[in-house]
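Narrative of activities, Objective 1.

The group set out to show that a structural description can be obtained from nothing but a protein's sequence at a throughput compatible with the screening campaign. Below is one input-output pair from the validation batch, recorded exactly as produced.
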Amino acid sequence: MGGISYTLLQPPYETNGNQVAPTIGFSDFFDKRAAAMLAGQTYNPVVSYDLAGQANGRPPLWGWDYKDVAPRLGFAWSPGWNNGFLRAFSGGAGKTSIRGGYGIYYDHFGEGVISAFDQQGSFGMNTVEQTPIGQVTVDTAPRFTGLTTIPTSLIPAPPTGGFPYTPPTSVVDGGSQISWAADNRLKTPYSHGVDFSITRELPAHLVFEAAYVGRFARRLLQQEDLAMPLDIVDLKSKTDYFTAATMLSKLAQAQTNIKNVTPIPYWENIFPTGVGANLANLGLTCANGTTGPGAMTIAGSATQAMYALYACNLHNETNALYSADLFCNPACATLNGVTQPNQFFDGQWSSLLAWRTIGTSSYNAGQFTLRGRLPNLLFDFNYTLSKSIDLGSDAERVSRFASGNGFDDEIVNSWSPAQMRGLSGFDTTHQLNANWIYNLPFGEGQWFGSGIGKIANQFVGNWRFIGLMHWTSGFPYGVENGNNWPTNWEVLGKAVLSGTKPVTGTFIDSAGNPNIFQDPASAIKQFRFAYPGESGQRNDIRGPGFFGIDVGLGKSWKFTEAQRLEFRAEAFNVTNSVRFGFSPPLGQGMQTLMIDNSVPFGELNQTLTRPRVMQFSLRYSF
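Output recorded for this entry:
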């Protein structure tokens, strides 16, 4: 059997015309930034916002997708083998069915994308003016003169209004904002679904089924930073920024004396004006050899100047780059003979996240089911062995700026999104679940008390015991990089496993609290901070899983055709089992899994299960 379907999903628009879009498509903006950095250049255009959408007679935020054709194929076969080995396998004619199918399935999307852009990115419609970052210090900040008087120098000028509207273009006038964008090249996400199963009828009213299920998704929505700092390549040394910055970070981590830091071609070529920088006056005195007797106060090379800067921002290297690129401290970059700010960072945004259809995922599972239809018992028992891999597991409704940030799975390095590929946040290798309905064998016509009479049977007979059971192996987690931003200005990223993978599960630590690690003090030493350009390792450890049993006991009495009395007693999590997990990341990582938070490291601070609840009900129907 086969078929085909066609999907045409209209891009959403605001019916009253209260809609804007950037004058430069952000997908083009991102692509040109990427091309420029590989060519040793920068790309920093001024982006304005103008009215958009069907109600204004203008193009939508993203184009129509006219190619969403979805074929479906399927087959079912019941072999009629009645002789020899094949009969032993199939059980004879009509006892076995073999089925399979394939299809393409398109998602319905757009609501969350529009909601995030409307709230955080519709400049001119919804504009938040921010006080410029890093403009004042404790010594130079203006003072408050009253409880209700804000120094005027801290208040940015109000937007002028009207369209086109241009957000501030530099840090001194309120630029370098953290905001949200809408990608103009979104496509409808889709997936390939594959399944194959064999169902076999067994003796004693049992049925067994074994199935393979696969789902391979493409063009999934993924949050990516379109204004991430450029990884500019120095064409002379054929070195990129991330590589050069990592070299400085490793030197700082080893506490290398600044006098022993030899010139690195990248820094000499890209930041040549750093030579002679007065490190003491600039406050760059964190590196070994910049204080005390014989300290270096004047940088002898551009590399030494930048080393002094990065040593003061170890593990937080985007802060170092921000200082150099926006404030020329200790030097601004020189590209093609031009020395100026904002060669790496965009002038209008330090971070500009957007939903983009660049994600992929793959799910493979073996599913095994045993069903029973016995005289007093109906049951299903299911086991699933599976693995799910993706670039990120956040749903469209939980963007970076939404409440409850899902799995906190924004892409860290926009120039290398494949670094995020790992286990899905919801992946569980093993799952068991069962359900049953058991008519207790008491009362008339049953194994026990079959002759007790009608009156006694009203109390003893026709009781029904029902239940649900669910168990999973451990959920995946990743160790957080702490409150550090080595790669992306806004997105934290994960730590990197550099030693032996620690033993995980549910253990009691020295403070008497549940912990994911058997030995937290040893476990934290197996991870290191991510270097510039690294995203860290996502979901590379396993925590506890889930377990719960819900049961119910009930009986009904029928008085007339229309009148019935029903009693039910139910218990949820009847075993009162406890399974632990971590509180939601909320955009800042899971606090007790941060590599710079050693005291409660790995402490499980949330329960995945609820305490046992029992309820009783009596219902009269008429």
